[in-house]
User: Fold this.
Amino acid sequence: MRYEHLVEINDPLHPLLTPMTREQLWRGLVRRAYAPQEFIYGLDSAVVDEMPSDDASRVLGRTLDYGTFTVRDVVRLRENESVCTDVEPGSEWPRSRLMISIEEPQKDRLYLRFLYEWDEVAVGGELDGIALSIRRQAYHAADLDTVVRLRELADEDRPAGGDRF
Assistant:
C-alpha cells in the first residue's frame, strides 16, 4: 500500500507563520532521526547507532522501545534532501517505509513530501476502506505534529543561530 501527501512549510498567505530556511528544516529532520523520542508519541527510548554507508548518505540503525514492543529500523539521510526510514517487519506490523523529502519549487517556498509504503499482505491481507482511511488520518496527524515540532526547533535555533545537529 502507499500513501503520500505534502505539507507546506512557508506559506506567504499565512504571514503569522515565521518562514523557515531549508537549513533549519533539514536540521530538524536530522534531529528527528537521532532523537525520535522528541517526535513520536508513546516512544519510551531509542538507541541510535551510525552505520557504514557506501554512498554520501548518513545511515543510522535504530532500536525504538515502546515499552510493550520494540521496533528496529534503518534511516538513510541524504544531505538537505530526504530522510528514508525502512522499518523491519514484526509479528504485528508489516515491512514499511517512510520517505520525507524537502521540496522547493520556488525560492523559499518549502514543502515536505511524506511518502508511506507498507506491505499489508505480510500481516494478513489488505486493509478495508475504513481501516485504510484511519491509517492515513493517523499518518497525516503525526506529520503535522512533526512540522509543529520542526517549527519549535527552528524558533529555538533563531536567536543563537547555531547548528545543534
Summary: Confidence is low (pLDDT under 50) at residues 159-164.
